[in-house]
Design goal:
Blueprint lengths: L21 H31 L2 H11 L2 H25 L14 H25 L2
Helix pairs in contact: 1-2, 1-3, 3-4
């Protein structure tokens, strides 16, 4: 008996297939934002390392920190950190941890509560660092 050998179907896909759907683009940016959050954590660790090195080392770090390229990098990191936080808050509404009268709470309530806690804690931290109590 003769057998026919068939080649498996291989679908060719562009590396940029995800750019055609805005939801996939947002997902990719959210995933990329975690890199910038980690980058900022390393910058803070670098600052602590410079602080440990003494007054001259910390002054050199501050000169670098307040340079124009670092200010631009900090603005980019802040934008990605806000994107990361906002999209994460939107995701928390998808997994209800509690129920109100047997139903999950409205998504707007969960997202709004997250933003209120975020703003409240940010205000508290700024008050502690700069305003005192």
């Amino acid at each position: 008996a003769t057998e026919t050998v068939r080649k498996p179907y291989v679908r060719h896909r562009s590396a940029w297939w995800w750019t055609k759907n805005p939801r996939y683009v947002l997902f990719q940016f959210r995933e990329m934002s975690s890199f910038f959050v980690v980058l900022y954590a390393f910058l803070v660790l670098w600052q602590l390392w410079a602080l440990r090195g003494g007054e001259d080392a910390y002054y050199a770090f501050l000169l670098m920190w307040y340079s124009r390229p670092m200010m631009i990098l900090n603005a980019v990191v802040l934008a990605f950190a806000v994107l990361h936080s906002v999209t994460w808050f939107a995701l928390t509404a998808k997994v209800p941890l509690f129920r109100i009268r047997g139903r999950p709470p409205p998504a707007a309530f969960v997202i709004g509560a997250n933003f209120a806690i975020w703003i409240g804690l940010s205000f508290l931290i700024v008050k502690l660092l700069y305003g005192g109590f």
